[in-house]
């Protein structure tokens, strides 16, 4: 089975590695987005998928947009089928038609739930207890194509969007490989998506801002869903503080929304109902630190209120 693989971020690396290790798969080329600036010095850096492909000696195509010229290159590859995992750009109809058996997208949701760029993040923010992955035939609409296969996974108490995505990237890799094989062999039975549609648009920095007037459970869900990106945060004296590892403390009810206190080694913050306990914090321009150590240094014996 000859394939074109399209993907960009680290979550697309495990499926690429799994396909590359299969004896029945020949990866003709890897399509990824162009090098992007990384870090404070904005050093142009190949995508995680590009780095994995280069490590394996696979040909790499870099493009942020699939134009007519790239479409012809894709057609000339002679791939049987294309695999897509978080490539990060739309695939136009001409490119879809350039591969005989089409493009199979691995999406980290149970479609039609959470169509879009941030399915796991939005699922955790909504409080979903079950997540999963779907493979589907790519078409012009946003994640609307018929489903080839699915798998489910339970959300764990300590999970964040980062840990769920890392786990699904590994456990769903065989699903993608099996779906590609079934489509090429003609044994797949793609089925139209059934059920209510929910959307998962890309997160912005503002999605990570904690709203202390929300109930404690909503605060916890927001932090889990926006960790590690774009990051959950609040403000103190106009300066941003990043938050991770936040847990609900329903037993604490005497703190106003946003009011922060250090009690018995725990950093507690009031919400619209109950309180939460902070795990780690990262003040602007500083390294991540234990919340209690930060609180002791900040003298939270005085009244501190997050904005």
TrEMBL record:
CDD domains: FMT_core_Met-tRNA-FMT_N, Met_tRNA_FMT_C
InterPro entries: Fmt (IPR005794), Formyl_trans_C (IPR005793), Formyl_transf_N (IPR002376), Formyl_transf_N_sf (IPR036477), Formyl_transferase-like_C_sf (IPR011034), Met-tRNA-FMT_C (IPR044135), Met-tRNA-FMT_N (IPR041711)
GO molecular function, one term: methionyl-tRNA formyltransferase activity
EC top class, as a word: transferase
Taxonomy, superkingdom: Bacteria
Signal sequence bounds: none
Annotated binding of (6S)-5,6,7,8-tetrahydrofolate, by residue: 109-112
Transmembrane portions of the chain: none
Pfam families (alphabetical): Formyl_trans_C (PF02911), Formyl_trans_N (PF00551)
Alphabetic keyword roster: Protein biosynthesis, Transferase
Catalysis performed (reactions): L-methionyl-tRNA(fMet) + (6R)-10-formyltetrahydrofolate = N-formyl-L-methionyl-tRNA(fMet) + (6S)-5,6,7,8-tetrahydrofolate + H(+)
Domain Formyl transferase N-terminal: 7-174
Formyl transferase C-terminal domain boundaries: 202-299
Functional description taken from the UniProt entry: Attaches a formyl group to the free amino group of methionyl-tRNA(fMet). The formyl group appears to play a dual role in the initiator identity of N-formylmethionyl-tRNA by promoting its recognition by IF2 and preventing the misappropriation of this tRNA by the elongation apparatus.
Family: Belongs to the Fmt family.
Protein name: Methionyl-tRNA formyltransferase
Species in which this protein is naturally found: Kocuria sediminis
Organism classification: Bacteria, Bacillati, Actinomycetota, Actinomycetes, Micrococcales
